[in-house]
């Protein structure tokens, strides 16, 4: 079944259709929020929150954008909102790195590639900018608006991310 059929059915309350959408997109949503948060447990929670919000908002989905674009935008918003609520970002980032290097038998079946291992080492804002620009194709102006920073800050943070990752390689 296609996304459009499942979207229409799910918007009308069909839980099986929504489950198919969930199964199609859960890995991508998880990857996105994990890269933003660098915390497996938080990413698991945020994935649930993204799909709860998607279920509630699906009747309002107008189809002007692709479903995946709409869903990943929702995931970005949920992730960034949660990050703003959190304190001590850097300590959580360090714990995530330690956890990821020690726990190779994680039940999530999400294999961290080399890029992901480098991304989670980046400082908070640098990581956010890199993920949004390089992986989600947001413009620096969109990132600036989303993170409440100057466009120039977004550009410099992206440059910093590339430089750090090149050094680590």
From TrEMBL:
Gene3D superfamilies: 1.10.1740.10, Winged helix-like DNA-binding domain superfamily/Winged helix DNA-binding domain (1.10.10.10)
Superkingdom assignment: Bacteria
Keywords tagged on the record: DNA-directed RNA polymerase, Sigma factor, Transcription, Transcription regulation
InterPro entries tied to this protein: RNA_pol_sigma-70-like (IPR039425), RNA_pol_sigma-70_dom (IPR014284), RNA_pol_sigma70_r2 (IPR007627), RNA_pol_sigma70_r4_t2 (IPR013249), RNA_pol_sigma_r2 (IPR013325), RNA_pol_sigma_r3/r4-like (IPR013324), WH-like_DNA-bd_sf (IPR036388)
Domain RNA polymerase sigma-70 region: 21-88
GO cellular component: DNA-directed RNA polymerase complex
Name of one Pfam family that matches: Sigma70_r4_2
Domain RNA polymerase sigma factor 70 region 4 type: residue ranges: 113-165
Similarity annotation: Belongs to the sigma-70 factor family. ECF subfamily.
PANTHER family (alphabetical): RNA POLYMERASE ECF-TYPE SIGMA FACTO, RNA POLYMERASE SIGMA-70 FACTOR ECF SUBFAMILY
NCBIfam families: sigma70-ECF
UniProt-recorded name of the protein: DNA-directed RNA polymerase specialized sigma subunit
Native organism: Idiomarina baltica OS145
């Amino acid at each position: 079944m296609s996304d459009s059929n499942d979207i229409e059915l799910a918007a009308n309350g069909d839980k099986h259709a929504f489950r198919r959408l969930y199964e199609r997109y859960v890995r991508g949503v998880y990857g996105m929020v994990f890269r933003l948060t660098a915390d497996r447990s938080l990413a698991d929670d945020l994935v649930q929150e993204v799909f709860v919000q998607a279920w509630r908002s699906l009747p309002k989905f107008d189809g002007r954008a692709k479903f995946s674009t709409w869903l990943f935008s929702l995931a970005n918003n949920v992730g960034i909102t949660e990050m703003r609520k959190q304190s001590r970002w850097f300590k959580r980032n360090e714990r995530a790195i330690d956890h990821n290097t020690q726990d190779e038998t994680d039940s999530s079946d999400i294999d961290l590639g080399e890029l992901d291992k480098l991304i989670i080492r980046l400082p908070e804002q640098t990581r956010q900018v890199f993920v949004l620009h390089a992986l989600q194709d947001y413009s620096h102006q969109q990132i600036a608006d989303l993170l409440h920073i100057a466009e120039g800050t977004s550009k410099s943070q992206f440059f910093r991310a590339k430089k750090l990752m090149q050094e680590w390689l």
